[in-house]
Amino acid sequence: MVRAPCCEKMGLKKGSWTAEEDQILVSYIQLYGHGNWRALPKHAGLQRCGKSCRLRWTNYLRPDIKRGNFSKEEEDVIMKLHRALGNRWSAIAARLPGRTDNEIKNFWNSHLQKKLKQNTTIPAAIKQYSVGTPCTQNTDIQNYGYGGIFSEQSQKLSATDCSFLSRNISATSKYQLLVDHLQLPSRFSSDHSTMESTKINDEMGFWYNLFMEAGESSQPPLNLGE
DNA sequence: AAGAACTTCAACCGCTGGCAA
DNA sequence: ATTGCCAGCGGTTGAAGTTCT
C-alpha cells in the first residue's frame, strides 16, 4: 500500500496556525462545508495539508467547542469513563459535549493522572502490580535503603512491603511500578528496551537495577493492561 | 534578576479501519 | 480478494508559559 506524501515533502506549512489562516479556514467551511479534507486546503487557498486543516477545525475552530477549565462534574465523568474505557479518548469525548479527544487526553495527562498518583500509596501500588502473597522477611531492597525517592514522596515502604516487592513481582511489574510511582520521565514508559540501553541518570538507574536484580519472580509477567 | 526546571497544550506523526473500485 | 484513498485515532513532541532556585 502506498502512503500519501506528507506535508513536509509537498512544501506545505507546518506548525502553529495564524489568525489569518484560521479565518480562511472558518470562512471556507462556513460557505462550503469541509467535504474532502485533502482537497480543502487547495480550494480554500491554504498552504496546509488536509490533515492539519481537519485537526485545526475539530480541535480548535469548530463553533460547538466548549473552551475553558474542566468542571468538577466533567472531571468525574472523565475519571469514570477512563476506568471503563481506558485511553479511548474519542469514546470519552463523545460523552462530553463540546470537549475534544485531544483536550481530554491533555487534561488527563497533565492533571488527572497526577491526581490519581497522589491518591495511590506505594504499598497500594505494590499490591496493584503484584502477584502472590506477601512474605515477612527483609530482603535486598530494604538492605539497599530507600531513603531516596520514597522518602522524598513521604511514602515509606515497610519491611514487609519491600520483601513482598522483591520476591513476588515480575520484571514487567517492577518496571511498571517504577514508571508509575517513581515518576520516571514518560519517554521511558513505553519501551523497556530503551530503558535498558539508554544512558539514564544515576537515580533512575539505581532503582531500575535494584528492581531487576532483586528476587526475580518465576511467575509470568502480569498483563498490565487489565 | 536570571537561568533552570517543570507544565501545558496545540500540533504533528504514523498506524488503523472503512470503503470504493 | 486486493489495492489505494481517506478520515479518525492515540501517542508523542516541542514551543511557550510558569514556577522554582
From TrEMBL:
A Gene Ontology term for the protein's cellular component: nucleus
Top-level taxon: Eukaryota
Keywords from the named record: DNA-binding, Nucleus, Repeat
Location of the Myb-like domain: 9-61, 62-112
Molecular-function GO term, any one: DNA binding
Alphabetized InterPro entries for the sequence: Homeodomain-like_sf, Myb_dom, Myb_TF_plants, SANT/Myb
Subcellular location: Nucleus
Major subcellular location class: nucleus
Residue ranges of every copy of the HTH myb-type domain listed in the record: 9-61, 62-116
SMART domains assigned to the protein according to its UniProt record, in alphabetical order: SANT
PANTHER family xrefs: MYB FAMILY TRANSCRIPTION FACTOR, MYB-RELATED PROTEIN MYB4
Record's protein name: Uncharacterized protein
